[in-house]
């Protein structure tokens, strides 16, 4: 059959066209006759494959409307999200790779770094580069206290040291650390 000029080729079948297909099939027309009738009477061009695919979906669902079926189960359950939240709260410098490794060890749940990053964002954790926070790690705090105590015991006067204030030191390498904090809560800066 020749296609008339002005015939519409829809990207998605409307509910009306789906009902027309069912009506024409029930009246005994085959797929080719249904296609030709839609072109002639409704000025809509639908391929035979499109009609067949709709009829197959209709037999499975029994409905002419679209159903959004999300059969994919969420990988991270509530217990996993709580674990991620607590892990980041305990170590604000932990990377997504390290969190993924801990999840695998604790729950035998292999997840990607991207999944961890999405979960971290969903939990409200934001990161800021180290230029906006102090770089003293938790493990170095006791070492600094011990050094200060040694200086007191040895009566260090620092006569041969020049002190500066508001000094900016930037890394010359690309690697930069990040610290995580929740936006709604002001996180404690590292000191």
TrEMBL record:
It comes from the Eukaryota. This is Transposase Tc1-like domain-containing protein. It comes from Mytilus coruscus (Sea mussel). The lineage of its organism: Eukaryota, Metazoa, Spiralia, Lophotrochozoa, Mollusca.
